[in-house]
Design a protein that fits this description.
Layout (H helix, E strand, L loop, with lengths): L29 H12 L5 E2 L3 E3 L2 E3 L9 E7 L2 E12 L3 H20 L2 E14 L9
Parallel strand pairs: 5-6
Antiparallel strand pairs: 1-5, 2-3, 4-5
Pfam families: Asp23
Protein name: Asp23/Gls24 family envelope stress response protein
InterPro entries: Asp23
Length: 137
């Protein structure tokens, strides 16, 4: 029995999917990974945002509801992350940072196909769990 295979040397006809090798390449930019990682970090219990900083000094109040700050460097199919966040007291800081690292590696891989090679976590503040605001009479 003889098997014949054909290779397509021209673009696929409209409505016909191209072979995976002919479809092109997807590039995910640093800014896109930063946004995905910032959102994914807030999916971990006990994680809040970080205030903007200028020369290491917080500009504005540290608020648990602020955005998590993420810097990303994408090189090929690998990404390194620098994450700045706050932790809700009394959550264990080291364990929370470890959970953030693992969660970010999983979510970035699932959503972008990139491999996370490093996640540096800086905890900028501790916050108390949300308390009801008192009234002043």
């Amino acid at each position: 029995m003889t098997t014949t295979t054909t290779t397509r040397s021209h673009p696929a006809a409209p409505g016909t999917p191209a072979d995976p090798g002919e479809r092109g390449r997807l590039t995910v930019g640093d800014a896109a990974v930063e946004r995905i990682a910032a959102h994914a970090a807030t999916e971990v219990d006990g994680v809040g945002g970080s205030a903007y900083r200028l020369l290491g000094v917080a500009v504005g109040p540290e608020q648990a509801g602020a955005d998590v700050r993420v810097g990303a460097t994408v090189t090929g199919d690998a990404v390194a992350l620098d994450v700045r966040l706050s932790v809700v007291y009394p959550m264990p800081v080291r364990r929370t940072a470890d959970r953030v690292r693992a969660h970010l590696a999983l979510r970035i891989r699932d959503l972008t196909g990139l491999t996370v090679t490093r996640v540096d976590v800086t905890v900028t503040a501790l916050h108390h769990a949300a308390r009801p605001e008192g009234r002043v009479w």
